[in-house]
Amino acid sequence: MISAQSVEDDPLALERQVCFALSVASRNVVAVYRPLLEPMGLTHPQYLVMLALWGRAPLSVKELSRMLALEPATLSPLLKRLEAIGYVTRSRDAADERQLAVTLTAEGAALRERALAIPPAVVAKLGMSLDELRDLHAVLTGVIAATERT
Fold this sequence. Notes:
Elements: H1 18-37, H2 44-56, E1 59-60, H3 61-68, H4 72-84, E2 88-92, E3 100-104, H5 106-115, H6 118-126, H7 130-149
Antiparallel strand pairs: 1-3, 2-3
Helix pairs in contact: 1-6
């Protein structure tokens, strides 16, 4: 057994693991979003899809998959659910029948106005400054880039 004093010297101490900190932080941040998204009928992964579409719709499933770093097999059920609740439509791209295009419905586009309240609510719940959150975002983006190079 390792004593508490040697945690900083132990390379396998749970508290020192980047993967542990990222995992717990991710779960906790998603939990902050949950009550904000529920009134809109969205889960956090669905919210990420909507964010991508609000910024660049229409998008192909392939483009969405790349943007969200999700496998198409993971993305497909999210899109089916968003289509079932009336926020998106999926249709074959006229220019390339092999591509499935995802488009916002009028209801999905209108939902963006309600979603504008989410970022400031998250910032308030986290109790961190915008500068701290921008710095964190930059560091995490660097981690993502580093893992994509491996």
